[in-house]
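Data card: per-record layout.
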Amino acid sequence: MGIKIIIVSAVWCPACLIMHPRYEEIKKMFPNFEYIDYDYDLDEEVVEQYNIGTTLPVLVVLDNGKEINRIVGEKTVEQIGEVLKGYLT
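The structure for this 89-residue chain is written out next.
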């Protein structure tokens, strides 16, 4: 199954809007990971399942369905890349 990245954001969230192009860059940098984007307001089950909280955006790293890391809030591409490169196989 491998690494899956869950991204939770909202249209009303300024940090989410800033992070959107950064996440797109991350997806290009790490194409072997599976990415799923969720909306904070529309995907309530996911928000509850992963205990997202109120600080957005949230990037959850899963390995074979188990959470192994979480990045909350506005980060640089370099900061996210540093975390994710540790999961390359």
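Known properties of this structure: The chain has one domain: 3-87. Residues 14-29 form the longest helix (16 residues).

See the next section for split statistics.
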